[in-house]
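Design job #97: recover the sequence.
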C-alpha cells in the first residue's frame, strides 16, 4: 500500500509518451526537426529518456545522422552509456514504436506533463515564499507572477542552459537575416538612417529615448510604435503616464493621415482632410496597439499587463520619471534610488518578455547652460543607473528650438549616445511638427494649400 501511495505522489509524467517520442526519432530521422521545435531536454521526466534526448539534440545541432546505432555510439563517447541497459533500451524504444506518424501527438503529451510539473514546482515555491514571510505582500505577489510566467513561457528562471542548446536558435536567426533584404536583426523603426545605426529594435533590449521637453520624443516613439504595428502585425503596448489615450490617438491619426494636428484638435477640417482621415482610420483599425493611460502604474503593473498579451512585439513607456515604484511609495528612499530601481526592473522586464522596450526620459537642464546644447549622457535626470541599464540611449535635439535663425529649420538630430550593438554617432531626420511626425531626409511631402 505504501508503494502505491508513493507512485501516486510522483510528479506528472507519461512514460509511454516519452518513449514514443524517442522511438519516433530513432526510426524516422525526418521527424527530428519537428520535435526539436517543440521539446527541450527538461521536458523529459525520466533521467534515461532525458539523456537520450540530449544526445539526439546535440547530434541534430551538428547535423549528424540519427538512428539507434549512431545515438548509442554518441552516448558512449559522452559517458552516459551503460553497457547493460542502454543498447537494449534503445532497441526497445524502436520496437514499441511501429510508426512516427503520430509523433506530434506524443510530443503534445510530453509537453502537457512537463507544464503540469512546472505548475506544481512553481506552486511549491510560492507556498514556501508565503510561509517564510520574508518581504512585503506586493513583492511576494510579483515573485509569484514571475514564477508562473516562467512556466507559461516554458522555461525555468533558475535552470542554466547549455551552449549547444542555444546554438540552433542563433544559427536559425543568422539564416533568416542572410535571406532578408535589409539584413536587419531587429524590428525596423521606420527610419532607415536610425535602423542602420542601432541595427533595429532587438529583442530584450531596453532603449532609452531622452530629450528636453518639446523636442518631440513622444511623437518619435509613437512613429516607431505605429511602424512596428503596421509592418509586423504584432501587438504594441503603449503606457502613457502623461497624455490621455484620446490625445495619443489624435497624434497617431494626424501622423498617419498627414492632416495638421491643430486642425484635428479644433475640428476645422477641409473636405480633403476627411478623405485622408478615413483612409488613416482604416489603417489604424487594422493594427494592434494597446494603450494604457493610467498615471499610477509601476513596472510590476506594466509587466503583468504585458504578460497577458499574445504576439507582443514592442513596449513603449512615456515616461520614466512619472512612474511609481512598486506599491506606489518610495519607502523613504531618495527619488534617485527609486528611478535607479525602476530602470533595472525595466531591463529585467525586457528580458522576461523578450521584446524591445522603449522608455522615454526627461533630461536635466544642464545642457541649457552650455554653448553646445546637444544632450550628453551626464544629462540623464535623477539616475546614472539608467545609462548603465539601457542597451541603447538615444537623444533628440533640434537646433531651431534654441536658435530661431538656425539653418537647420525642422531638422532633428537623433544622437546615439550609447549602443551595445554597434557604433555611436548621430543621424539627421526631418521633423514635421504639424503632423507630429519624423521621417528620413530623403522623403518629401507636398505642401498643403
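Job complete. Output follows.
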Amino acid at each position: 500500500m505504501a508503494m502505491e501511495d508513493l507512485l501516486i505522489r510522483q510528479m506528472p509524467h507519461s512514460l509511454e509518451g516519452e518513449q514514443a517520442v524517442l522511438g519516433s526519432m530513432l526510426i524516422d530521422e525526418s521527424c527530428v526537426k519537428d520535435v526539436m521545435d517543440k521539446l527541450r531536454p527538461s521536458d523529459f521526466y525520466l533521467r534515461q529518456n532525458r539523456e537520450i534526448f540530449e544526445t539526439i539534440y546535440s547530434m541534430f545541432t551538428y547535423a549528424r545522422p540519427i538512428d539507434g546505432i549512431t545515438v548509442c555510439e554518441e552516448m558512449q563517447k559522452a559517458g552516459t552509456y551503460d553497457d547493460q541497459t542502454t543498447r537494449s533500451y534503445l532497441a526497445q524504444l524502436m520496437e514499441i514504436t511501429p510508426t512516427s506518424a503520430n509523433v506530434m501527438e506524443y510530443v503534445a503529451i510530453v509537453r502537457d506533463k512537463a507544464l503540469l510539473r512546472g505548475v506544481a514546482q512553481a506552486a511549491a515555491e510560492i507556498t514556501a515564499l508565503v510561509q517564510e514571510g520574508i518581504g512585503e505582500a506586493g513583492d511576494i505577489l510579483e515573485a509569484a507572477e514571475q514564477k508562473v510566467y516562467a512556466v507559461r513561457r516554458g522555461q525555468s528562471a533558475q535552470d542554466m542552459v547549455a551552449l549547444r542548446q542555444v546554438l540552433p536558435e542563433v544559427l536559425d536567426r543568422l539564416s533568416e537575416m542572410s535571406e532578408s533584404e535589409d539584413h536587419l536583426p531587429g524590428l525596423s523603426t521606420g527610419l532607415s538612417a536610425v535602423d542602420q545605426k542601432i541595427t533595429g529594435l532587438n529583442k530584450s533590449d531596453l532603449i532609452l529615448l531622452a530629450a528636453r521637453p518639446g523636442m518631440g520624443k513622444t511623437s518619435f516613439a509613437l512613429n516607431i510604435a505605429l511602424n512596428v504595428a503596421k509592418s509586423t502585425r504584432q501587438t504594441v503596448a503603449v503606457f502613457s503616464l502623461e497624455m490621455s489615450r484620446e490625445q495619443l490617438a489624435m497624434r497617431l491619426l494626424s501622423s498617419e493621415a498627414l492632416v495638421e494636428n491643430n486642425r484635428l484638435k479644433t475640428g476645422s477640417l477641409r473636405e480633403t482632410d476627411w478623405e485622408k482621415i478615413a483612409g488613416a482610420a482604416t489603417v489604424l483599425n487594422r493594427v494592434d496597439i494597446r494603450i494604457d493611460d493610467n498615471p499610477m502604474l509601476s513596472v510590476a503593473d506594466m509587466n503583468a499587463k504585458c504578460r497577458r498579451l499574445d504576439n507582443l512585439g514592442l513596449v513603449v513607456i512615456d515616461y520614466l520619471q512619472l512612474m511609481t515604484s512598486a506599491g506606489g511609495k518610495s519607502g523613504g528612499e531618495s527619488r534617485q534610488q527609486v528611478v535607479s530601481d525602476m530602470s533595472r526592473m525595466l531591463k529585467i522586464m525586457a528580458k522576461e518578455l523578450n521584446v524591445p522596450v522603449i522608455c522615454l526620459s526627461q533630461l536635466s537642464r544642464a545642457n541649457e547652460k552650455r554653448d553646445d546644447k546637444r544632450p550628453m549622457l551626464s544629462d540623464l535626470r535623477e539616475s546614472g543607473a539608467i545609462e548603465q541599464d539601457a542597451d541603447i540611449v538615444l537623444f533628440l535635439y533640434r537646433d531651431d528650438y534654441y536658435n530661431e535663425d538656425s539653418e537647420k529649420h525642422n531638422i532633428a538630430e537623433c544622437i546615439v549616445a550609447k549602443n551595445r550593438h554597434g557604433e555611436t554617432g548621430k543621424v539627421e531626420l526631418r521633423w514635421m511638427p504639424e503632423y507630429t511626425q519624423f521621417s528620413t531626409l530623403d522623403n518629401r511631402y507636398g505642401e498643403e494649400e
